[in-house]
Amino acid sequence: MKVKKMNETAATGRINQIPAREAERFERALLLGALAIALLFDRLIADAQTFRAITCGYALFWLGYLIVYYICNWERAKRRMAAWYVAAVCALACAWLLMFAQGEMQLFTHLLLPVALMLHAQLGVLSDTEPMTLFANVFFGFFAQPFTALGKPFNALASLIAGKSRRASYAAIGILVAVPLAGIILALLFSADGAFSYFGARLFEGWDLGSALFHVVCVFVVLILFYSLLWNLKYKPENYYIPKPPAPAKLEPVAVGIVLGVLLAIYLLFSVVQAAFLFGGAQLPEGLTYSEYARDGFFQLIAASALNFIIFALALRFTRPSPAIRWLLLGLLAATGVLLISGVTRLLMYIGAYGLTWMRVAPMWFMAYLAIALVLGGVRLFAPKFRLFKACAAVLMAMALLLAFVNVDKTIARYNISMGELNNESRRYVYSLSNDCIDELIAYSDAHGGVERTALRERLFELRHSGAYTLSDILAWQKLEAWYGSQGRG
């Protein structure tokens, strides 16, 4: 598979179609937009002192970027419904970061939000949104587009400052490069030579040169990277594409049918065993408890389900259409459904014995997603024009948001506490959860006292020390202060 770069004429054709005066106005506006993004990054992320502050700044920064993106690409992006869908998902994810404090989901959101936003950036400007072309442009959006127009912001700044004066333009570019470069060289020389460092300390007494240099470099680097990215998205939105491959040779239904038939026979035997032991109440083999039976092999069932989807997609893509193959593939989806039911049943048994944790909620969520994908796969079997990949991607984003807004920490705490008095391990886990479940923790502490009250006091003192940034932390702080006062220790 080859990733091709469009020829220069095709890639830059849009620049020639835009009048010079209009292009100049756009690039000056883009300079201000990139500067706004850089200042947001410096103030909200680079200057933050705690992870909670970084998380809130991270959300506000990406919301600011989204606004600048649409200002720069409004004419093309306003008509792209897929881009609006991803933008809405990203905006809601940012809102979630400002509202909730769940550590596991925060890390997950921190990692995936830039990927989703790059996908959105490409969807908003590309005319070809076939999956492989889209993946290529997302990849190069991270590793090429921020670096292939690094000189453009200097040209825009020179134009903004000097108008048509060529000499003044060059002077502006020289100043822009010289200031951060001089700061870096001075910092290195101050560290290398004691006498020069003493001279610098006397000359810049009272100045925090290290901090100032850090912020200047931070703004400078973020500005030119985002300017280059947005410039490329405006003028070279289809710079990379995957040539459409020739139609693949189709396999004969007989060969594929034999493979699917063997798999279905195995799954039929598996289904009989599951019906007997999981659903029929048959006695397990000697020495095997239900909790062990529920735990052992669970992740293998998920892996087998995922493998079935791959087999389904390959058979659908590379097999000559045949009614028999269609019904065999439908049988494979049904067998995958049995695997998922078995997996869910095992997991519920294990949760019933040992309680909820994030590592048990996440597989349950994934199996729910696979169940929806099963239905979508069945639709694709009888509607050949149905875009299965895009539908699965859209459902995945929606379900990730659903998982975030369900408030998993609160659900975990409420369920585990409802099972009765917590043992030491369960207590430590529940009290390690975020402030999203503060109501449950306060109620449990009031009922049991002792160690639980000490844990809540420590949580309150931590909030007093580090501050509250998310809505969840602010509300938890208020409730803990009220609780602490009610204990007669305010």
Order of helices and strands: EHHHHHHHHHHEHHHHHHHHHHH
Tertiary shape: flat
Number of strands: 2
Radius of gyration over alpha carbons? 29 Å
For the termini, the CA-CA separation is 68 Å
Judged by helices, strands and strand pairing, the structural class is mainly alpha
- The structural domain count equals 3
Count, helices? 21
Overall mean confidence score, pLDDT: 82
Q: Give the neighbour order of strands across the main sheet.
A: 1-2
- Portion of residues within helices: over 70%
Topology, please?
Layout: E1 4-5, H1 8-17, H2 20-46, H3 51-77, H4 81-99, H5 103-123, H6 131-143, H7 152-162, H8 166-192, H9 194-203, H10 209-235, E2 240-241, H11 253-279, H12 290-295, H13 298-318, H14 323-354, H15 358-382, H16 388-405, H17 408-418, H18 424-430, H19 438-448, H20 451-466, H21 471-486
Description:
- This protein has helices spanning 8-17, 20-46, 51-77, 81-99, 103-123, 131-143, 152-162, 166-192, 194-203, 209-235, 253-279, 290-295, 298-318, 323-354, 358-382, 388-405, 408-418, 424-430, 438-448, 451-466, 471-486, and strands spanning 4-5, 240-241.
- By secondary structure, the protein is an all-alpha fold.
- It has a two-stranded antiparallel sheet with strand order 1-2.
- It contains 21 helices and two strands.
- It starts with a strand and ends with a helix.
- The protein folds into three domains: 4-160 and 209-241, no CATH class; 253-406, no CATH class; 409-486, no CATH class.
- α5 (103-123) crosses α6 (131-143).
